[in-house]
Amino acid sequence: MTKYIPWTEFDRLVDDHKADYRVRSLKTKDQFLALLFSQLSGCSSLREIEAGLASYESRLYHLGTTVPARSTLADANAKRPWQVYGDLFTFMVGEANRKVRRSMGEITRIIDSTSISLSSLSADWVKLAQGHYAGKVHIVYDPDRDMPLKAEVTPCTINDITPAKALTLEAGATYVFDLGYYDYGWWSEMDKLGCRFVTRLKSNTHLKDTTELTVPAEAKTIISDRIGLLPRRMKASRRNPMWDPVREITVRIATGKIIRIVTNDLDAPVQEIADLYKRRWQIELLFKWLKQNLEIKHFLGTSQNAVYIQVFVALISYLLLNLARQTQSSVHSAKRFANLVCINIMNRRPIEDLHREYRPPTADPRQMAMELSL
Fold first, then answer.
1. Were both Cys, which of 86, 245, 281, 306 would link to 77 (CB 3.0–4.6 Å)?
2. Residue at 311 is within a domain
3. Which residues, including other chains, have CB under 8 Å from residue 115's CB and lie 6 or more apart?
4. CA 30 to CA 73: how far, in whole Å?
5. Does the residue 356 lie in any domain?
6. What are phi and psi of 154, to 5 degrees?
7. Mean pLDDT by 10 residues, the chain (374 residues)
8. Does residue 45 form part of some domain?
9. How far apart are CA 85 and CA 72, in angstroms?
């Protein structure tokens, strides 16, 4: 798994951020390998990481690392700059993007966020919201390649639209998002760049000067399709910058609920727009997979730095699993492949050969990995 890590870039980032400055023990590389082991093996505490690596101590030579003490690892998570891991994630995504060349018209990006539960010990950087301490992970996702492209961690009190506005938009791309990104100014910026956006309309937003379009008979879930203008004024009598006509598509979803989808694409088939919005659920499946298979539910530290490091190492682990899974053709399920890696985490064998002795686990893979380590 570690051969997919760009170690030259990692070393450069460590130097740029002075992550190993005056460090006597547990270099940043050792910290990274320990946290990566935690993500791939399912360790949810510092004690489990220490015990797990200690059980493989004779094999750590090949990784060029040692068994970290719990206190030393905790101190590193609190003090080493999280930007090393954030920048490494960005670099790895960029490298993966350069290997896949596609026309701009095919690019689809889904934007959403998910909450991460924190404890009251994190109260120095997160505020209490609705009785809970929590943060948010904001992600830009490529559904065609099942890859998170950009990520940002914030306290839960930060509105979703705030980090979204800081994104560098890709001209000509299609962006799909939900009501948390309701901002006419941002929509207008997308429109000027030639981007297509697909999102939902709030119930109190009414189009003016509408023109009804014919709905094809085969589009069974589409109730109406029309073109109109958004309100000219926003709050505090501010002028709405999104003056161009938009398209409203009313859809009945599987639960029977009726939703109103809005887009600046006035020409695409109505079913294509409805299907694009439906793809937004792919990022929900990503969030579910990350929380079920990687360690972003239980955090090893309570400081902002420690939480940020753990989130970005989890995302790097997801990229590594995707890259490794692409090197073999026997195990197609992402969850099954993650279980395979978990069970064989310290075996020095080619990944493409591991499936030969693999059987779908009948128990918790973390428990199986623990039993193997014993």
1. 306
2. yes
3. 134, 135, 136, 156
4. 9
5. yes
6. -140, 165
7. 93 96 91 95 92 91 90 95 96 82 69 93 85 92 93 93 94 94 94 95 90 91 94 75 93 92 95 94 93 87 94 96 87 87 85 62 51 44
8. yes
9. 18
